[in-house]
Design goal:
A: 7 helices; about 25% strand; B: alpha+beta; 10 strands
């Protein structure tokens, strides 16, 4: 691994159903309705990309490559990434049923190959995608590459050949130092992503986008998990109002809770 | 006939930025004979729409009510619009602008108006009246001077109307007399949008009243010029956060280099600019109507009366459908007028139709939305009453409805002369 002053960052940008959309389960209960529904970049991936762009503005990163695995529509997501500050984009095309069954392990293998091909020093990912909520890809890629991982990051600073990182964990904040190259996953409070400004949207057109398929990386993307069914959460039951604490205790006793 | 025109325009398309070719999105113009629906946006236009929509939702929405109450535009929003590149949409990137098309301005104005018509008109005036004016008529030297500033942080105001001259714009009384190499301006302009925060004013004054309107000249006056006095804001029914002030010129002395274009051509420039500007107003009113209906439809699915969601009643279903259809018709008029202009085709009749129809629809839709919301439509803690108040100005500014109808009628007459 050649040591250089400024680093190359790869950023994973997943195309997901927009966070504001009301999700509906498909009638066949095998998934959710995606047809005609508004999609955008996974919010945590936006945060990851923003961090990479900020590092580039500080001259710590020299090039940002945005990557997305999925159908042709992913190119819209990549163009947004280019408009936000990525220099190049890579689209790994996966369509139809293959895409429905694309799982984190397969994506991790593709990313691992890409990182090696692009000679990246940093891999930025969102901590999880808001559709699958798997929270696995970052960790798996680190393992496949035998790289250190810094997950749930809320602050990143560079010091020499390492990164000083603050992670958000259940007990509070964890301070760690990791050597580069490293896999980083972004948590909510890492930063507030910029909007793609109009001039940058217009400039993004001219930035290059390379296209591949999983076969180009010799990755077997067949699923290891099978979805049995997808259902709505149970409808929330109405509660009842009580007049005072005594009544509350009575009701709780009646419900067998105390 | 249309095919010949279209072919000729396609050949001249190299004059326009490449995003015009991108207008077709996935299907190319004239390739295989399939032209695109008016409502289909190019990838850039769609991205732009998404970004402006998000900016409006996240940065502007929280401040809308307060700005309306106080009749005060938040300076951070103006700054934010500049930072997003929304105030220099058609300005060339070499000057720091976004290098996009007029249609992109229309999209931006529409998306902003869905959230706040006042912010929308601020963006509209800057792009369609100020920047366009400089682009079409200013000398290269003046463009080099002003475009970088207009793209970065300089807000502009368009000063034409006076107490004596509204629809009868050419009867303006503001005078320009020569004093050596300078011009001295005297008069009072009324109803000037953006005046409170503007740094530059395009002022129309007459240098020779015996020439009637052919004496009208456009002057560029910077805010700190001695004698330029910005009056108090008007206390308005709608678009309250947009500043509307008197601009007084008391012996304002400016060098000859501040004349925009040619002396005595100001009347022509003003009228042509307004032809373009009214498409922008069409977009603003479209956004107002959309914003109102978007706020109303969820309510129809929530409010329960007579054991049913009120949205299930036929009256509500039919009204919702009628209003949505009127909005769609407005959208087609506005978008098509913008595309005609971007493609260098005649657009004056269509622009007037778009502005006239859009403002009528905005009034109708917002009024009906209040009815559908019932009591909550009438109070300030629901957004619909503001859309209703904001819509009214559409029938008045940048050419009243009566003037638009005159223009349309005249255009039709010209078509029948041969």
């Amino acid at each position: 691994h050649i040591k250089k002053m400024a680093l190359r960052a790869l950023v994973g940008c997943k195309r997901v159903i927009d966070y504001a959309v009301k999700i509906r389960v498909k009638p066949d209960k095998m998934g959710v309705v995606t047809e005609g529904v508004k999609h955008s970049m996974n919010p945590f991936d936006e945060i990851a990309l923003e961090e990479a762009v900020r590092m580039k503005e500080k001259k710590l990163v020299s090039e940002i490559v945005a990557v997305s695995c999925g159908p042709t529509a992913c190119q819209e997501t990549l163009r947004t990434a280019l408009a936000m500050g990525a220099d190049r984009a890579v689209h790994v095309e996966v369509n139809g049923e293959d895409y429905d069954n694309l799982q984190p392990l397969a994506v991790s293998k593709i990313f691992a190959k890409l990182v090696q091909q692009e000679k990246a020093d940093l891999l930025f990912l969102g901590k999880q995608a808001i559709d699958g909520d798997c929270n696995q890809t970052g960790q798996m890629v680190a393992s496949l590459l035998d790289w250190p991982q810094a997950t749930f990051t809320s602050k990143i600073d560079k010091e020499g050949d390492s990164l000083k990182i603050i992670r958000e964990v259940d007990g509070g904040l964890e301070h760690i130092e990791v050597k580069i190259p490293v896999v980083i996953t972004a948590d909510l409070r890492l930063n507030e992503p910029r909007y793609a400004t109009l001039p940058n949207i217009m400039k993004a057109k001219k930035k290059p986008m390379a296209k591949y398929t999983p076969a180009d990386f010799e990755v077997d993307i067949s699923p290891r998990l099978k979805i049995i069914s997808v259902e709505d959460p149970p409808v929330r039951q109405a509660g009842s109002k009580v007049e005072n604490v005594d009544e509350l205790i009575e009701k709780l006793k009646g419900a067998g809770v105390i | 006939m249309a095919a010949v025109l279209a072919r000729n325009l396609y050949r001249s398309i190299s004059r326009y930025p490449t995003s015009i070719a991108g207008v077709s999105g996935t299907r190319r113009w004239l390739n295989g004979g399939l032209l695109n629906p008016v409502t289909q946006l190019s990838d850039e236009e769609q991205m732009m729409r998404d970004t402006v929509s998000r900016f409006a939702r996240e940065k502007i929405q929280p401040l809308v009510r307060e700005m309306d109450e106080k009749s005060e535009m938040d300076k951070g929003i103006i700054k934010g619009m500049f930072e997003q590149g929304l105030m220099g949409i058609e300005i060339d990137p070499q000057y720091g602008g976004s290098g996009s098309t007029f249609f992109s301005s229309v999209i931006a104005i529409e998306e902003l108006a869905k959230v706040d018509a006042s912010v929308s008109v601020c963006c509209d005036v800057q792009n369609t009246l100020i920047n366009a004016y400089f682009r079409e008529y200013a000398s290269q030297e003046m463009k080099d001077r002003y475009f970088p500033r207009l793209a970065k942080d300089l807000l502009g105001s368009f000063c034409l109307s006076e107490a004596v001259s509204g629809s009868d714009a050419f009867s303006l009384q503001c005078s320009a007399t020569q004093g050596g190499d300078d011009w001295i301006l005297n008069g009072e302009k009324l109803w000037i949008t953006n005046a409170e925060h503007a740094g530059v004013y395009i002022v129309h004054a007459n240098y020779d009243f015996s020439k009637k309107h052919r004496g009208i000249t456009a002057f560029v006056v910077e805010r700190d010029t001695p004698g330029l006095i910005i009056g108090k804001k008007e206390d308005k029914l709608g678009i309250r956060a947009s500043s509307t002030c008197t601009v007084t010129l008391d012996n304002v002395r400016i060098p000859h280099s501040q004349v925009l274009g040619e002396v005595g051509k100001g009347y022509k420039y003003a009228i042509e600019s307004l032809n373009i500007g009214r498409i922008g107003i069409g977009a603003q009113m479209l956004g107002v109507a959309e914003g109102a209906l978007n706020a109303t439809i969820p309510y129809l699915n929530e409010r329960v009366q007579f054991n049913r969601k009120i949205g299930e009643f036929q009256a509500m279903r039919h009204l919702k459908a009628e209003l949505a259809t009127q909005i769609e018709a407005t959208k087609l008029l506005v978008y098509n007028a913008a595309r005609l202009r971007d493609n260098g085709l005649p657009f004056i009749k269509e622009a007037a139709m778009a502005k006239y129809y859009s403002s009528e629809v905005a009034c109708k839709v917002t009024g009906r939305c209040i009815e559908m919301m019932g009591g909550v439509g009438f109070v300030k803690n629901f957004p619909v009453e503001k859309f209703y108040r904001d819509a009214k100005i559409g029938q008045i500014y940048e050419g009243t409805t009566f003037i638009q109808l005159n223009t349309i009628s005249d255009c039709i007459d010209k078509e029948f002369i041969n």
